[in-house]
Write a structure and sequence with these properties.
Layout lengths: L2 H30 L4 H4 L1 E5 L2 E5 L18 E5 L9 H5 L13 E5 L1 E3 L2 E3 L3 E7 L16 E5 L12 E5 L18 E6 L3 E2 L13 E2 L2 E4 L2 E3 L6 E2 L2 E7 L8 E3 L8 E5 L4 H13 L10
Antiparallel strand pairs: 1-7, 2-3, 3-4, 4-18, 5-6, 5-17, 7-16, 8-18, 9-10, 10-16, 11-12, 11-15, 13-14
Length: 288
């Protein structure tokens, strides 16, 4: 066979290989990009309003009307009060769309024009904040967490508390704004790193920490709080359209804070963390 016959065949084979090579490089490039899966890895439970109460079972346990306390808005677990225990929460009912979620969720009562208001919607998101995703552990049973500061003297970072409008995403601000025909909503983001030892602490905060930047858009847990857990975020819709004549039972709007007491059915919580967060996917919502 002459060289003239061999050369066209070699060119043809090279041409046939090119699409496969291109596809391989595209796949390889996708794998090499820093994982953005944590942005969409989440599950969401809707838990409507249930009751108002002056109790705060984390800060003032077994005190029915604490003198230093204020009225709270409770969602999720139907039994939450000053005398709550993990066992009592586990055996109570829930307003949540997923019955395995017996978690207790609460925040200060909100007033508009002097009238106390009930939240229209309560949505609770469990997200993967840190990487690797496979390292995230479910909350330990009975874990207590507080986010925000009831004694704040100015608005906190929107990474902790933000105000927005229902139907908008990624627009949280430090102050309430006029939402036109849309309802006001607020967001509270809880710390996603645990010290691995305590389920509560004297100040109810030092056993937890917020994740820190690790470069390339990634986050990691700080050394003193090495155990990554889901980032819990409240998204609460309110029945008014602007921040005029609004105050909280704890004070001005910037004193917004929120509490969480984990009373999930641990088996179901582990399943969701494994499927949604470890799997890097957004799971279907559990609507009430």
């Amino acid at each position: 066979m002459t060289k003239g016959c061999i050369l066209p065949r070699m060119v043809a084979r090279t041409a046939l290989r090119r699409p496969a090579i291109v596809i391989f490089l595209i796949v390889l490039g996708a794998l090499a990009v820093p994982s953005a899966a944590s942005a969409s890895a989440r599950f969401h439970v809707e838990c409507p309003f249930h009751h108002f109460n002056h109790s705060d079972p984390i800060v003032f346990p077994r005190v029915k009307h604490p003198s230093a306390g204020h009225l709270h808005t409770f969602l999720g677990n139907k039994s939450t009060n000053a005398f709550s225990t993990y066992r009592k929460l586990r055996h109570a009912g829930t307003t949540c769309g997923l019955r395995a979620d017996k978690g207790a969720y609460w925040f200060p009562a909100i007033y508009k024009n002097g009238r106390r208001v009930k939240p229209t919607d309560g949505d609770f998101y469990y997200r993967a904040k840190t990487e690797p995703l496979s390292a995230i552990r479910p909350f330990p049973k009975g874990l207590k967490i507080i986010a925000g500061n009831k004694e704040a003297t100015r608005p906190p970072s929107t990474k902790i508390v933000g105000w927005s409008c229902f139907g908008s995403a990624g627009t949280a601000r430090q102050q309430m704004r006029d939402c036109g025909n849309a309802d006001v909503k607020f967001l509270v983001h809880f710390p996603s790193c645990w010290d691995g030892k305590r389920k509560d602490s004297k100040d109810h905060k030092s056993h937890m920490a917020y994740a820190v930047k690790a470069g390339n858009g990634r986050h990691k847990c700080p050394r003193g709080h090495p155990v990554p857990v889901p980032e819990l975020s409240y998204s609460i819709r309110l029945p008014f359209h602007d921040g005029r004549h609004v105050h909280l039972s704890s004070g001005p709007f910037y004193t917004m804070h929120a509490d969480f007491w984990n009373a999930w059915k641990q088996r179901k919580l582990r399943q969701l963390v494994d499927k949604c967060l470890h799997g890097g996917i957004e799971c279907p919502s559990f609507e009430a």
